[in-house]
Amino acid sequence: MAISDNRLSEEGYKSNFKDIHPPFENYTAAAVEANRCIFCYDAPCMKSCPTSIDVPKFIKQISTENIKGSAHTIFSSNIMGGGCSKVCPVEKLCEGACVYNLLEEEPIQIARLQRYSTEKAIKEKWPLFTRKPSTGKKVAVVGAGPAGLSCAHVLAREGVDVTIFEKEQRGGGLMTYGIAAYKVTPEFCQEEVDYILSLGGIEIEYGRTLGEDVHLHELEEEFDATFLGIGVGLTRTLGIPGEELQGVADAINFIYEIRTKPFNKIPVGNKVAVIGMGMTAIDAATQAKRLGAEEVTLIYRRTQEEMPCTEKELNIAKLDGCKIIWLASPKEIIGLGGKVSGVVCDIMALNPASAGQRKLPEPTGETIQLDVDMIIKATGQLPFEKLVNQNEFFNNNGRLIVDDQNETSIASIFAGGDCVNGGKEVVDAVQAGKDAAAGILNYLNIKPLPTEPLIINPLKL
């Protein structure tokens, strides 16, 4: 059975793509977990959060039934705290830093508690922020992903009028188009975007692509400042024979299809090889299996010790029945009738590298061959180098270079997120948007006023 769609029943798809991290069913369950927290002074969980959410405070607010206050605490630091509670690798961030780990106890379920508060706020459309009077300043934001939305929300709260230019037909960026469907649904992503926009002062123009129907010189003329949150581009090529064969897919495009079409309309191979071991590779592999692939094999040129994904993510793939081949690198893709029929891999060995560097994988001279009918490339993404160079930005191999205010080499144009750091977590992009907004406000000579405390009745909310 070659690449095909509609492999499973409707119930099969529903079961395979249900929420992998179910929320607390009621307040009592959330309160029991919240009351486990010992509310550390100088809390390590807060320090490990890129957006510096006051974790002990929002958990304490949950324990006292102040759910609106809890949501306000989260959103004040991370306006995409709802989505981040579903997709963040918390095992290496807040929950990984929880002091209970030192006591050989289960860490506080920070992500589920954060999800509890934020989902209620988004679902019930709580107006937790008030926009300040308009300053008359206008800022363009290119990209409605986490960095762009975060930047826009901070600016709008301070009275700046923001127009976001987004190439897709929905906002959310990676959250909407690049995350496994069993982690967060496109419907939730839309609700989160709508909640962010409900503040006022932010408009999104969809189907507008930088370099095609939106140009920097036009934005410079019309707006007082511009923020670029354009992310990164396509997956790196393997650069090996056979890469052009039918059945070789880009992981980003594969996941994009899953996010934008019904599950039964997504073609998948019977025997699939996924090249890479980052979070995108795991998402591609597990979803291929859940779409009905009989066999999925992850191929990685280093060992488990060097893998980019977390152990928790790796365990998801293992539980789904995905196989793993360590110390192997694709050498040639074999075809039959123009279609993928197998892949030949070099067996690799790690040679000691100089101090401070990763061990370098090198071919041993031995090879293995796998019979597969589909290959998914998840080998990292490249910056938009051509676009960056066309506009004469200072850059590092396509990654925009910014100063301590997040301003690029072109005055009034700021940048942040994956287009600067090369690709990190959603929560890092949110913080980058906040940092850039602070730089833009300084550039516009707008002094942010202290945020007024949220005064609410904490009971029964």
Low-confidence stretches: none
Shape: globular
The share of residues in extended strands comes to 15-25%
Topology, number of strands: 15
Figure out the total of helices: 18
Q: Quick one: CATH superfamily of the largest domain?
A: FAD/NAD(P)-binding domain
Radius of gyration over C-alpha positions, nearest whole angstrom: 23 Å
Mean pLDDT: 94
Please give the CATH architecture of the largest domain: 3-Layer(bba) Sandwich
Assign a percent range to the helix content.
25-40%
Major beta-sheet overview: 5 strands, parallel
Count the domains.
Answer: 3
Structural class: alpha/beta
User: CATH class of the largest domain, anyone?
Assistant: Alpha Beta
Widest sheet, order of strands: 3-2-1-4-15
CATH topology of the largest domain, by name, is: FAD/NAD(P)-binding domain
Amino- and carboxy-terminal Cα gap: 54 Å
